[in-house]
Amino acid sequence: MTLPSPARLLCAALLSFGLVGSAVPAVANDAVPAAPPSTAPASPATVATQQPLEPATLPTTAPVAPVPAGTVPATGKSTGAAEPSTVQPSEVALVPSPAAKTPAQNEVTSFVPDLNWNPLDDPESNARYGEHFAQPITPLKTASPLGLDDEGGSAAIAPRSGTFKVTLVTVQLSGKTVADTDAINMTAARNSITSANGYWNSASAGRLSITKVNELRHKSAAKITDSYGTIMATVTKELNWQYRSYESLVIFVPHADLNYNGSWGILGGGFTDSATSGRVIMPYPSALTNNVVTHEFGHVLGLHHANSLYCGNARQDVPRAGSSWADSSCYSAEYSDTTDLMGYAQVSSPAINAFMWEYGGFGRGDEIRNLGTPTASQSLTLRPWAGGSSGRAAKFTDPASGETYYLELRAPVGYDTATAVGGNRGVKITKKDVLGWSGNASIVLTPNSLRSGWGNTTLTWQQGQTFTTHAGTRIRIDSVTNDAASVSILLANRPAIGSYDALSASRNVDTAFVRVQGWAADPNQPSASTEAHAYVTGPDGVKRGYVINATRSRPDVNAAMSLGGNHGFVGDIAVNRSGRYEVCMFAIGGVNTELGCKQIQVSNAEQPIGALDDVTVVQSSGRVNLNVRGWTMDPARSSSSTPVHVYVTAPNGVRTGYAFTANKNRADVNSALAVTGLHGFQDDISIDAPGRYTVCAYAIGLNFNTALPCRTLQIGAALPIGSLDEVRVEKTATTATLRVRGWTMERENAQASIPVHIYVTDPSGRKVGTAYLADKTRNDVNSVLDVSGSHGFEQVISAPRAGTYTVCAYGIAVSPFSRENPLLGCTTVRTGVAEAPKGSLDAVRVDSTSSGAVIEARGWAVDRDMAPQSTTVHTYITYPNGSRKGFVYPTGVLRSDVNSYLGISGQHGYVTRTPVTQRGSYQVCTYGIGTSPYSTGNSLLGCISLRY
Ligand SMILES: [Zn+2]
Hints:
Layout: H1 6-16, H2 44-49, H3 103-108, E1 162-174, H4 178-182, H5 186-203, E2 208-223, H6 228-239, E3 247-252, E4 258-260, E5 263-266, E6 269-274, E7 277-282, H7 289-300, E8 306-311, E9 320-321, E10 324-325, E11 330-333, H8 354-359, E12 368-370, E13 378-382, E14 393-397, E15 404-410, E16 426-432, E17 442-444, E18 466-468, E19 474-480, E20 485-490, E21 497-507, E22 512-521, E23 530-537, E24 543-550, H9 555-561, E25 568-575, E26 579-587, E27 593-602, E28 609-620, E29 623-633, E30 642-649, E31 655-662, H10 667-673, E32 680-687, E33 691-700, E34 705-715, E35 721-731, E36 736-745, E37 755-761, E38 767-773, H11 779-785, E39 792-798, E40 804-811, E41 823-830, E42 838-849, E43 852-862, E44 872-878, E45 884-890, H12 896-902, E46 909-916, E47 921-929, E48 939-947
Parallel strand pairs: 1-2, 1-3, 3-7, 8-17, 12-14
Antiparallel strand pairs: 4-5, 6-7, 8-11, 9-10, 13-20, 14-15, 15-16, 16-17, 18-19, 19-20, 21-22, 22-25, 23-24, 23-26, 26-27, 28-29, 29-32, 30-31, 30-33, 33-34, 35-36, 36-39, 37-38, 37-40, 40-41, 42-43, 43-46, 44-45, 44-47, 47-48
Helix pairs in contact: 5-7
């Protein structure tokens, strides 16, 4: 409810009278001042005293007799009692009112709880722990100077430092006896101050203390049937207690509980008079007193209640709508966060939540990490909130709604030991409640908003659960232990945004293109550049996609859309066909957004085409050339020959251009393209070094130049390798040859068979060179060198002279830039000796047998060049009649003596037997017959005469 209460009016009146603004008193934080509706504004006389008293109870006139308590029903609990509009000065309190003696009043004062009494556990008690009354949930409040209502997520109260001096007063209310008052356990009362001091001293990192400096006993005109706010106001007035910085008033009254408008069960009340002053009213001490007094000092320090969200539709979170929730099925269940000191916290005093912590300016200031407005999903670690780590909690501002959320790990540590158990151990999520007019109330957002109040024992989020803000941002609980929780903030995917500003057509030297311009951004990552995608449908009807990076500066867009970074795009998309183009653009993000389509007409878009078919190395007259071959055709003038520019990048990096014209016949091209004219080119470009060459050709068209795919080739500087394996002398009776065998090749050019040059120097010193091709199969060589091809040579070379021959072989490089033709080897061989056969006719005789006579000749003969080969002997016989005949015989008889003498082997002796019949004188001559090709003739071995 936002009705301006009388208290508010009165407060305004006081301000208008010039009281110190920062000391606006008696703004009852949550305790509803039981202001009489008819009370007039404070009189000037009151103002003159400059005593900032409880405005709701300022007496404006002479004391008026209290309203008879007889209006209170006998039960005293069921209906609202009439509020006394004014109170007597304290001095007159001894005069008992008639009501004080009614049985009803005696009944409500009859019970003195002991310190173990927990009214929450007492079925007879109607306890509403604390000062808060269950209904209405939004009691009347007044604006507080402590903070602005719309200020969320930032400290409203600067860090305070000081010691609250407490005046502790026991009050004998009208109608109560001395014995009633004596029943107030002062030890418990004092302990509660100590307890509150311990809690807030810890929460303020030692800056705040609360200490009792004075203890009074006071007899008041107020009655227990007065609403608790009225009692507080009456006593304040009677004591003439005034607001002063770092002072507070704590009163205990002799009754088990307090009431508001006749509803009982209230266990305490707190009033803030500024950020550094306030008052507390308490009933008889009980088991709850330490906690309640600590709670009430939370009010004194400016905090409102820790509430929880209830939604009849089970929503986890709702947006604000002015000063209420946007969803009428939801309300703030005041005071029902049972894990917070400022909620329904029972005996223990759990930690106030991070929102309250920050609001009140507590701690060192480093406990809550401010994640700001996340621009990307992220993970973070929380440490126990009731522990001592810096950065143990976090807050972030939802990028979609701007609301600030607080994330804490509630683990059984420190002040949370008793409460952070079961479903209350986990990640607690809170935000500012709409309830607090000063922005000083929190609301806990729980996994089940259908439960609220003290019936909800599951206020925290567990591992695996995900909380979703009303704007769609998700908080995923990744893990929870007593020491740490891991949480991921997952931003909702918002559609990409952008604008497709323009489509135009243009051209450069290479191509025609369509240009798209605009901007694109992903609001999920508002400072990061994203992409735009273009889909181009050309005259051929084919749709093609292109990625265009939106990385250009567009300050206008950033300013208008509250973006950082660069989001503009200008994309050129080459086209090579004239006609109509449609280009559709998309902004790319978590969700892509179509930015629209545009159309444009493109003319004269066709580019020359062609190919660099091959580049080969050719050598002519000592020069090495690159022969470049290809074709090109310009659709803009398809029957004309087109210039071609060829750029050769030499191994030293120097690039040289050559201009040719594609004016050679290429029937294949004409046929394939259905054009006429001359479109081929084939030209030589001289080069002078080995190495890697890159050759690129450009078709020079009427409108564009087209780069044809380049070619590279490696031109080696080869050094042949090889071997002259063998030079063997081979002779027959008529021929003598040298068999020359070996291999040679270029490693860099192993496929090719290369020449071998063989130089033969004969015994006379004459040298003859002959070129051959090493193209014979040599599997052994290929195997060892792991190459293919044929690299062997084996030549038979005539060796007509006896003597020493020298044979040398050279591998002949074929690569254009070979370094040299290496010597593969030289071999010297002796072919033989040139002489006539040697031998002897040792003896001749006639051997007569029964069958006839035989002339037998013995001796030896050898052609030494052919030894150990046997030779031939011719035997000539001159008969008695003078005729002469020759006969041919082989040698074949071992003559060790001859072998030994000549140092040879073989069988070189002979025995020839020639039949004869005539008697008379004979002459026998033998000749050794030369068998070597080098033989100088036949030799007469000897002649011997004899008679038969
Ligand atoms: Zn309270």
